[in-house]
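Note to self: keep these together.
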Amino acid sequence: MADQDVTPEAETAAPTEPAVPLTPRERKVASRAERGQRRPSTPEARIELRKAKAAARSRRRLQEREKAKANRSADPVPDQAPRPRVEGSAKVRVGKVVSAKADKTITVRIDTARRHRKYEKIVRSSSSLHAHDESNDANEGDLVKVVEARPLSRTKRWRLVEVMERAR
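Structure:
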């Protein structure tokens, strides 16, 4: 009689296994399988996918070029005389001469100290640059003022303006 009391529904509910937690990688694989997104597994399929993407990029770039061309032709710029070139102010730096061994060239160390934005500690840093010294006026240890100039050599982009303080 006890065997008859057990319903088939109760038998199916009992043997359920506890859910095993999936690793992040397994979850990712499962979610991709649900969405149906799979990477091509064969090299030929990957090549085809790359070709399709390249063609799509080419089409889009062509559309962007045509759109830009249409915008340029729609707004013609009235004939104007070319604008005069505005000379910006050249950068000026003050530093100490580290080396004056090369002819007509000095190496200047620029020391900077600024407060850190977050920690408010003063952070010191330095950078060195090469400057043109036409008359070989500056010596090691001098405090000099240099100004930005056109490229004079591979590394020289500055020019000596004045020697502010001589070394003792």
